[in-house]
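Structural prep section.
Before we set up the soaks we want a predicted structure of the protein with manganese (II) ion in place, mainly to decide which crystallisation condition to try first. Input record follows.
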Amino acid sequence: MQLSLAEENYLKAIYFISGPERNLVNTNAVAERLDTKAATVTDMLRKLKKKGLVSYEPYKGVRLAETGEKLAIGILRKHRLWETFLVEKLSFGWEEVHEIAEQLEHVRSSKLTERLANFLGNPQFDPHGDPIPNKEGVFPRRENLTLDKAEVGDFLLVKGVKDSSVDFLNYVAKLGIRLGDSIEVMGVESFDQSMKLKHEGSVLHLSAMACANIYISRG
Amino acid sequence: MQLSLAEENYLKAIYFISGPERNLVNTNAVAERLDTKAATVTDMLRKLKKKGLVSYEPYKGVRLAETGEKLAIGILRKHRLWETFLVEKLSFGWEEVHEIAEQLEHVRSSKLTERLANFLGNPQFDPHGDPIPNKEGVFPRRENLTLDKAEVGDFLLVKGVKDSSVDFLNYVAKLGIRLGDSIEVMGVESFDQSMKLKHEGSVLHLSAMACANIYISRG
DNA sequence: ATAAATTTTTAGGCAAATCTAAAAATGAAT
DNA sequence: ATTCATTTTTAGATTTGCCTAAAAATTTAT
Ligand SMILES: [Mn+2]
Ligand SMILES: [Mn+2]
Ligand SMILES: [Mn+2]
Ligand SMILES: [Mn+2]
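Run finished without errors. Recording the tokens verbatim:
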């Protein structure tokens, strides 16, 4: 199946919006995510349906068909591999790579994808801690535990970020927090749930909102 | 200037057809190279002219304007850098990389291009021995001497291939000839100008046609 | 110098992906 | 159960890149 760039982006958008529960996705949600108009989305949904990539009933919503999901995951795999390449091999900052990977993910060559994965040491997670599906589309397991759920006295490892906006990524980088770092919860302010943390020997204060966007694992 | 993929391919096609002498390029030549129709080319030439990227007079021909040439060389730089990456880092064969580089060359990010160049050690020549222009668009010098011009007794170094077709690249690879190898001319058959060569200790026979497509330098 | 062949452009269309504006369906509120 | 608001689709255009067929210009041959 030879997809256009636009079709690939629609599949990926539907994949993300529908989430792990594979919910029905609204036309407007797709339009907003792709920064386009609802009428444009309707056109594309009919096209994707005709190609058998989604199930779509007018006014009801859309969800990925099996083929569509396979393709979406394939594009996601490429996206995250390229992001890893850019950070690990070309020394890009983790806030710079998404935009470039949005282009690279559309390069068609399964041999390239697999050679790249191998060159990178078959990474399981991308620079933001997001799981990279393997060639068969299977994701490595990751606890979806965020820092705000931790308790005083916990010793934790930083596993990823939930919010991958440039602003948040820059903020986390400025704090010196990197994936794999260990953090100890020293206290939680009951007024606003902000946290006092020990990180690399020094003490940090993070808002509840920031904590809710950092993935961690226990010990 | 934000170019479409099609526009970039036209600029590159005109660049190659016009050659180092910057000759006027015919509509049909562009159509043939891009595997499209003359009428389509005419449309695009008017568009590129309006953008100031080419000078074009109906029925006369087209040539790149300064901006157009700069852009074409920039795409060529990316193409050859990606080819180098694929061969050097991902162990692709030199006959496989052109097609993939045709896609990668359109990825827009000057930071990516320069990081990639740096990662590769700022190579001067691509896997086919073709010169890689630097960031300013300046090409490294290469003698355009081919093996068929050499004489008996010459000691030579293989510098590149003139014909980059998959067939020829496979043939040269099968012979075991690689860039940088040294070759000694043992004899030239006066009947058909085929050459008897010493390469890596053994003796090779190459047709005049093959020899005319191998770039060499003297000692 | 004409005629024939070739090249190039023009005319008219088509498919993909987008838009705006209007109509229709759905869902929420009285 | 109507009415109102929101969501979604339809209708009608636009732009880009491509096509075929016909016309026009240029080049080549007689
Ligand atoms: Mn990303
Ligand atoms: Mn990522
Ligand atoms: Mn190439
Ligand atoms: Mn090359």
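Observations: Chain A is about 40% helix and 15% strand.
Flagged for discussion at group meeting.
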